[in-house]
Amino acid sequence: MADLLIIGGGLAGSEAAHQAARRGLRVRLYEMRPSVQTGAHQTHHLAELVCSNSLGSNLPDRASGLLKNEVRMLGSLLLECAEAASLPAGGALAVDRELFARLVTERVESHPNIEIVREEVREIPASPVIVASGPLTSPALSHSIAGLSGEQHLSFFDAIAPIVHTETINMEIAFRASRYGTGEQDEGDYINCPFTKEEYYAFVEALLQAERIELRSFEEAIKSGVKAGHFFEGCLPVEIIAERGLDSLAFGPMRPVGLRDPRTGRRPYAVVQLRQDNLAGSLYNLVGFQTNLRYPEQKRVFRLIPGLENAEFVRYGQMHRNTFIASPKLLRPTLQHVRRDDLFFAGQLTGVEGYMGNIATGLLAGLNAARLHNHEEPLTLPQTTMLGALCHYVTHANLKDFQPMKANFGILPALESAHKLGKRERARAYADRALADLTSTLIRVREGEPAPGA
Ligand SMILES: Cc1cc2nc3c(=O)[nH]c(=O)nc-3n(C[C@H](O)[C@H](O)[C@H](O)COP(=O)(O)OP(=O)(O)OC[C@H]3O[C@@H](n4cnc5c(N)ncnc54)[C@H](O)[C@@H]3O)c2cc1C
Questions:
Q1: For residue 132, which of 378, 320, 368 has the smallest C-alpha distance?
Q2: How far is it, in rounded angstroms, from Cα 235 to Cα 257?
Q3: Does ligand 1 lie within 6 Å of residue 314's CB atom?
Q4: pLDDT tens for residues 82-122?
Q5: Are the C-beta atoms of residues 229 and 400 closer than 8 Å to each other?
Q6: Which of 72, 105, 117, 159 could bond to 228 as cystine, CB 3.0-4.6 Å?
Q7: Quick check: CB of 358 below 6 Å from ligand 1?
């Protein structure tokens, strides 16, 4: 009889299994490969890296490097295997993917407290469990997860629109306004890029000709429209909308209704609207412009938008399969479900993005499942640590705009004394504070005192 079930032998699930097992729990780890495939994984190994072979920066003053130092302190098995399989890659931790996955598989398989069952789990079990089935969670299990809290709290795709630096928008052409003047700000909430009829058709033509990122089999649904990103929002890439008819964008995301160009006094033929993306107002995103164009093509084609001819892109648009739950509503920073203490989520499903973040949340879920089993309070890590900040972010973000988040210094609480420092020194100060706070948390835990926030 197992003390803990884990669904998914990927990055998070393998790490979680090892953490719980080394604390004495009998763990049953379910992995559906090779009998059921995800479409992205190619082997039967645990912890297979599906794309890049880099686990990000290893430098201590980079966000991903800090996260590595934290999970190193917490005794991560996967980081140990990654280091054993590392390849020369400058400041990054790149690995021989085959060796990495083989090492993890051997270590997990040979652990006396872990039993691996090669089976698809189709329903969330009623006993203590960590769900770590990843961005390509099987449809049956996705259905069961959705059943916990309603389908509107599960997202299947990411749909990210491009973001530009506000100061690079040409305001001699673009103008501020809200449709029918209904916005909150007097000058209008949106920046609008107006098209003449000729400009619009030239833009649509370029969009249709532009090179796209090829969709994988498990992403074909994107072509017919998917629920993506913001929960429950129907999304199609702009280039697919354009394929449906030359004027379909002008009646869709580029519709000009309720807008007048102050320079002509007339309604433009079409409009691209940009919405403020950060509090400082230094970034704006192109509303409804999720896309699968290749990045250089996005730069070329979207610069044809009047007013964006010199726009600098902070982030390009993308659409891809990504199952994640509405963590701000469903999870606690301990990675426990809000309504079930013995139900944990880990990895990409929580909305924490990137290989290292997925390993780190697996580690915390495994550690906390073991603490729960041993009648100890599950740990909430300090928000000043990168892992604590990630868990805090995904469980406290604004649900309406919730998007997966990877390690970055922007999610750590501000450090007043670091205000005047340069970028690198500031990062070092954040990293020093994080490791000091994690050290004191671990000392407190070892001495049996509850951790702060627990
Ligand atoms: C195509 C693709 C490319 C990506 N590329 C990168 C990248 O280059 N860099 C990066 O940092 N991140 C990347 N990511 C994001 C993410 O970091 C990885 O997907 C990462 O592997 C997620 O870790 P995980 O443990 O959450 O899930 P996974 O590593 O995917 O592990 C989940 C495991 O659960 C199994 N499983 C699923 N459903 C069931 C079930 N019902 N029963 C039993 N087992 C099940 C799967 O077979 C899988 O082995 C990518 C994601 C995708 C989809």
A1: 368
A2: 20
A3: no
A4: 999 999 888 899 999 999 999 999 999 999 999 999 999 99
A5: no
A6: 159
A7: yes
